[in-house]
Amino acid sequence: MAAFLAALLERPHIRPEFLVNGETPHPPLRFCVAVAGFRPRGPDGDAVFATPFLTPTLHVLGKNDIIVVEERSKTLLDVSENKRVEWHDGGHFVPSKASWRTFFREYLRNPTGSVPSPGSAAGSQPASGAATPDVIVA
């Protein structure tokens, strides 16, 4: 949905009912984050994604996602002109281990900057979402 909205805001006249008094209701987004994203099927998706969209987009995909599989995600990647793809070891969820939280924080602060991949900080932690962190008592 985030990518659909980003693409629609780039070319709002594709859907006249989206306009307010003939004008776009919002300027194009500065960036977009799509977790387990895919290109919607049907006339709306076909119209909005007829040409690639340009909004810088972070695509976060789970290597073990059985709901939105890689082939389905590729349909959105193919129409995302300015993309960054990050894979996590889990399934159909937003990764939450420390390296990912740090990555998301830094990415949201500077989406077009040089933010290191969350996978580059390899450690001995289990896959994101596979274990509950220990509680630290001070």
Automatic annotation (TrEMBL):
Alphabetized UniProt keyword annotations: Hydrolase
SUPFAM superfamilies on file: alpha/beta-Hydrolases (SSF53474)
GO molecular function: hydrolase activity
Record's GO cellular component terms: cytoplasm; nucleus
Domain Serine hydrolase per the UniProt entry, residue ranges: 1-102
Residue ranges, annotated region (Disordered): 114-138
InterPro entries reported for this sequence: AB_hydrolase_fold, FSH-like_dom, LovG
Protein name: Serine hydrolase-domain-containing protein
Organism phylogeny: Eukaryota, Fungi, Dikarya, Basidiomycota, Agaricomycotina
